[in-house]
Amino acid sequence: MVGMRCPAIHLALGQAKQLSRLAWQGLHQVLWPPVCLCCGGQAGPDNSGLCSGCWDQLLTSTSGEYCLRCGRDASRYGLVDGACPACQALEIHFDGIARAGIYTETLRQMILMFKHDRTELEALLGSVADAAFQGSPFYEQIELLVPVPLHWTRRLARGYNQSRRITGRLRHPTARICPDLIRVRRTKAQPAAATAAARQRNVEGAFAVRPDHRYAGKTVCLVDDIKTTGATLNECAKTLKLAGAARVYALVLAVAGQDLG
Fold it and tell me: Which of 46, 55, 62, 120 is such that its CA lies 20 to 30 A from the CA of 13?
């Protein structure tokens, strides 16, 4: 009889433990309500640390179709030979791009905060980037993941490279992170309104690869936080292809400058 009662006792104890945990969680919610990672309001229970308003804005900014050549908003029916009207005449050195969303509202705010010491946003931004990466048409081809590098002076001042942190959150069965792309010249911070030509001049010759690099013959995915005109990604892709990379794709958290060349 004792042996027959043991499963019931274990079940009762388990239920009591679960009720106690739920009661503690409820009390914790009352005494210390979770704070939205973005706006500081009260976070929703199922919104990954965001309030309902910020969560809805994030969903809005990460939805919609876009050009797989440049990343701008575009309908699939408006593409000609895989390019949207905005990029058909542009010289693009990377072979395709995947984005998590557009640079607006909650996603914009989260990226800016992440670049300025709010490293607790890494997990959420990383999961958003990983979803875009796994949904990209080039996911299975990637052999090396390459974070867009910071100049060592900016890396020292900030304490981390946000692109490298996001790269570390990407899941792939075989691809490995390769940090052999380096920034050899500190470029000027560009205003948001800077033209595509000005941005291209600013980054020209700013990147190089280490002498013992592993890029020859490889299919590479560049990872960055924001694409505006694409000048930085273009220069990185050109440098990698000169080093022998077979194909270079790009993954970004957000695409800004929807009206820029």
Answer: 46
Q: What is residue 9's predicted lDDT score, i.e. its pLDDT?
A: 47
Summarize the confidence of residues 205-233 as an average pLDDT: 95
Q: Copy the structure tokens of residue 246.
A: 């077979």
Tokens of 251: 């993954």
Whether residue 57 has pLDDT greater than 90: yes
Spatial separation of the C-alpha atoms in residues 156 and 250, rounded to whole Å: 25
Residue type, 150: L
Distance of CA 17 to the CA centre of its chain: 39
Dist CA 217 CA 197 (whole Å):
30
131 φ/ψ angles, rounded to the nearest 5 degrees:
-65, -40
Q: What's the rounded mean pLDDT across residues 185-198?
A: 76
Distance in angstroms (rounded) separating the CA atoms of residues 226 and 101: 10
Q: Three-class SS string for 97-111? A: EEEEEECCHHHHHHH
Give every CB contact of residue 19 below 8 A, 6+ residues apart in sequence: none
**The pLDDT of residue 67:** 95
pLDDT (average), residues 67-89: 91
Cα-based angle 163, 240, 153 (whole degrees, multiple of 5): 45
pLDDT (0 to 100) of residue 111: 96
Could you identify the residue written with the tokens 């990466």?
Answer: 133
Contact 196, 70 (CB under 8 A): no
Q: What is the pLDDT of residue 101?
A: 95
Q: Closest Cα to residue 132, out of 219, 224, 261?
A: 224
Work out the average pLDDT over 63-72: 92
At position 5, the amino acid (one-letter code) is R
What is the value of pTM for the model shown?
0.84
Give residues with Cβ within 8 angstroms of 84, minimum separation 6.
Answer: 67, 69, 70, 72, 74, 78
